[in-house]
């Protein structure tokens, strides 16, 4: 399945599924799409989210405490696909829940519910053979993370294995907001352009319209994660969908 960005820069919105609850996550995702998000990254909550900063860690802990499982997130993806057939939909997970389900079973189910792609944050390209085969079998787009510290040979491998888009990490470290877009991001995108014609989306720390505009100068899309999850954390479940909708609309302005 194709993942398309309607304008530059595109907007990818990350949500931790099940925070504050699955029904509210659905409403938030729909509000994000309706206000300009091209792609929803639907995060599978995990008990040990090492790549994430404190905001997303807390969201994951809340969702896990409520009993949100990978199977619940897949069913939520099904609902979103039915409600917004043209939106991009990427399942974002750590490897452990997928391994517990079984790689082939997971990919089959992801395709069945209508996901476009999958990002496994701790799946490295050097060990992805079985994963890539299962993804290809079910016409799913694997999305890999590319870091500023990666040598060109590794960026070439990541670009070659990716489909849909390449996720360029704006800085080394964990997720979280920052004051400005790291200078490493533009250099990383330029290096990746040598190896792929896929869209390149920049994430880690993108949190306001100024950041999105800056990313649009050199990349195809901006990924918003911690800023959205923090907004949800401080909103009531009733307020959260409208608050996220306003936030996404504001990024477009």
- CATH superfamily, called what? Aldolase class I
Morphology call: globular
Number of strands: 9
Averaging pLDDT over every residue, what do you get? 93
| Series of H and E elements | EHEHHEHHEHEEHEHEHEHH
Strand order of the largest sheet: 5-4-3-2-1-9-8-7-6
Radius of gyration: 16 Å
- CATH topology: the name is TIM Barrel
Euclidean distance between termini CA atoms: 29 Å
Helix content: 40-55%
CATH architecture: Alpha-Beta Barrel
Structural domain count = 1
Instruction: List low-confidence stretches.
Output: 173-179
CATH class: Alpha Beta
> How would you characterize the largest beta sheet?
9 strands, parallel
Describe the structure.
- The protein has 253 residues and is an alpha/beta fold.
- The protein has one domain (10-142, 207-252): TIM Barrel (Alpha-Beta Barrel), CATH 3.20.20.
- The protein has eleven helices and nine strands.
- It has helices spanning 22-34, 54-65, 70-83, 95-101, 103-113, 129-137, 152-161, 184-193, 209-216, 226-234, 240-252, and strands at residues 10-16, 39-43, 88-93, 117-120, 141-142, 145-146, 166-169, 200-203, 221-224.
- A nine-stranded parallel beta sheet has the order 5-4-3-2-1-9-8-7-6.
- Helix 3 packs parallel to helix 5 (103-113), helix 5 packs parallel to helix 6 (129-137) and helix 10 (226-234) runs antiparallel to helix 11 (240-252).
- The model is unreliable at 173-179 (pLDDT under 50).
């Amino acid at each position: 399945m194709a993942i398309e960005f309607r304008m530059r820069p595109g907007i990818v919105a990350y949500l931790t599924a099940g925070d504050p609850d699955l029904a509210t996550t659905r409403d938030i995702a729909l509000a994000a799409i309706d206000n300009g998000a091209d792609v929803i990254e639907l995060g599978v909550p995990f008990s040990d989210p090492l790549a994430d900063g404190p905001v997303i860690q807390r969201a994951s802990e809340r969702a896990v405490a409520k009993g949100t499982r990978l199977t619940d997130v897949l069913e939520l993806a099904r609902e979103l696909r039915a409600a917004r057939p043209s939106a991009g939909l990427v399942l974002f997970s750590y490897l452990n829940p997928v391994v517990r389900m079984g790689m082939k079973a997971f990919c089959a189910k992801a395709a069945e519910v209508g996901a476009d792609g999958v990002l496994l944050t701790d799946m490295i390209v050097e060990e992805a053979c079985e994963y890539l085969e299962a993804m290809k079998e079910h016409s799913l787009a694997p999305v890999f993370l590319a870091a500023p510290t990666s040598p060109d040979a590794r960026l070439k491998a990541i670009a070659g294995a990716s489909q849909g888009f390449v996720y360029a990490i704006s800085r080394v470290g964990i997720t979280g907001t920052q004051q400005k877009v790291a200078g490493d991001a533009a250099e990383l995108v330029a290096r990746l352009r040598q190896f792929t014609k896929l869209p390149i989306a920049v994430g880690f720390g993108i949190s306001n319209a100024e950041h999105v505009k800056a990313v649009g100068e050199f990349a195809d899309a901006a990924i918003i994660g911690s800023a959205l999850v923090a907004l949800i954390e401080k909103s009531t479940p009733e307020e959260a969908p409208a608050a996220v909708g306003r936030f996404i609309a504001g990024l477009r302005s």
